[in-house]
Specification:
The protein is an all-alpha fold and 87 residues long. Helix 2 packs antiparallel against helix 3. The chain is elongated. It has four helices and no strands.
Length: 87
């Protein structure tokens, strides 16, 4: 009789499961970047007119850039650079 032995693939060993906090960090930063980038794009259109259009456009562009770097850092796990115990 042949019995199957659990074979673990090397891919699963190198990539442990994401923690819930890390997953939520990636999720929320991605939605923030997408939303703020859309606001910036919409306010950049010529036909859109309201009193503080340029201020909204400028600040949404800054915040979109910041949230994009936050999203990239969450994906690439740049928080390990700043943690004390580097595993």
């Amino acid at each position: 009789m042949i019995s199957q032995v659990g074979i673990s693939s090397p891919e699963k060993q190198n990539y442990p499961r994401k923690s819930k906090a890390r997953y939520l960090n990636i999720k929320y930063s991605g939605y923030a970047a997408l939303t703020l980038g859309s606001v910036c794009g919409i306010t950049g259109l010529r036909k859109v007119r309201f009193p503080y259009k340029m201020k909204v456009h400028k600040y949404s562009a800054y915040l979109a850039g910041i949230s994009s770097f936050w999203h990239l850092g969450a994906i690439k796990q740049w928080d390990k650079i700043f943690s004390k115990n580097n595993d």
